[in-house]
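Follow-up to my post from last week.
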Amino acid sequence: MATLLSFNNPLQAYPKLSARMSSVLINIVQMVAVPFVGIVVFLFLWSVTANNITTSLGKFPGPDAVWEQMGNLYTEYKDEKVKAVEFYQRQDERNAERLTTEPDYEVKIRAYTGKATFPGQIVTSLITVLSGFFAAVILAIPLGIAIGLNKTLNNAVNPIIQIFKPVSPLAWLPLVTMVVSAVYTEENPAIAKSFLNSMITVTLCCLWPMVINTAVGVASLSEDLRNVSRVLRLSPLAHVRKIVIPASIPMIFTGMRLSLGIAWMVLIAAEMLAQNPGLGKFVWDEFQNGSSDSLSRIMVAVLTIGLIGFLLDRCMLQIQRMVSWDKASASR
Amino acid sequence: MSIILDISQIDMEFKTPSGTFTALKGVDLKISKGEFVSLIGHSGCGKSTVLNIVAGLYQATRGGVILNGREIHEPGPERAVVFQNHSLLPWLTAYENVELAARQVFRKTKSNAEIREWVEHNLRLVHMDHAMNKLPSEISGGMKQRVGIARALAMQPEILLMDEPFGALDALTRAHMQDSLMEIQNELKNTVIMITHDVDEAVLLSDRIVMMTNGPSATIGEILDIELERPRDRLALASMPEYAALRAQVLRFLYEKQRKVEHIATVTAKKRGLLKKAV
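User reply:
Got it. Predicted complex:
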């Protein structure tokens, strides 16, 4: 590519400038053009393959069908929003009217219960995954620090962690469901049970990588830094706060990133089974619905899930870059 | 001069899978206030072990260390250590590294403003005030070691322990650091124990050089008083016959009396042993 570009280069009279120009060009080619070509080739292969697969719901959706459904989902969202606004307007008008006739009437405002929209599902999924993830952070990091500091505790807990780590979320879910419905028995639950089910499943699955990475980070604290702490006679709490935690921040973040990736994958499966509103339920509902558009709509969800997973990872990376002193570990 | 530190007949044994290893046997040394003592000897002779026992990081198997009339059982800031590889906290700036130590020692006796002044004073002493807001990863090896020294000085120790402080530095930087250390020493008159491999460094800086025999069961072989006038200048010393004689004495001890006969086979065996331990 480089030789092609510098061929007959008018800047050849200025070798230095020309060299710099061509290195910039190579960069542009590598960073923009090559990925673009990759995507185009992928779309082409996709549409060719899709054309040759026929299911009971019609042809497998190609890029064009998916693009169309993306538009449809957006229009449905817009329509739904308009309906909601109209609903509240009607409600307000009715209430105002009633107040004129009976002044001591207590105004009741009912929430709009339209059908869930695609962007709405995305938001629900994000809320669920982040609640599950943060619950895991709160549990896992102190536990990981304790295990990393204390060898005996590590030996006691390690076999348990190793056994639970590879368990799939789908195995947890029935147990979580039963326990939640047995323990959480309120008449009008402020938090939906299905939400709790999927959130707890997410928490259970992303606990382990965080515990393990935090413990390894803490345990691998260098002898020298430990000696510094001893010479300064730092109290145990100050030792953890000023030496142990900052030193293991890079490893803690590695664990958090791994966990968030797992959490997002687990969530989709959990939502499908727990019938918690969200992207997983959207996919399941479309599958059950079985219209000719269903496959394209599921494909939209698939792409969205991938994109959001990618963005979540980028966000964690950015936070890690801001917080961590070890810039090398944050560039990976 | 009054004795500040008494290292009294210490033995040090380490338990290894192949039995007890006696690293030190009967090490006995008294150090006066304001004295600069170097420990010199071949690698593996237990110099660092002596220093770690004085620091309180190790406990001697027999015998003990008495500082100002009190026996030492644990580490503490009155025995500040300058570590060989600087051991700065990589997430703190030079200033914050020194501040952590200063705050730990003076949080009850000094106000925030006084601590700030004290930290800056110590960084000025080692000529690092221009880079005090840099992280350790942003400064050179010599500069890191300067900050390490400032951190130790900021604890206002009764005795300063230096474990091959300039061992990892190139020759020019090392010479520069030695001059800085002499300048600081001239001003503060600290009591210092320094471990070194470098004969010139030992003669240049010390009041006494303690030469250690080879291990196992290493102990003090000879003690050499260095009665060269201070302040010392490395260039003037270089052409001085007394300096050459002192230097020759140390060299004779290290390369004649305590010549290290280490066959290649034993070296590899030792390394293999270490590797096994690491696995």
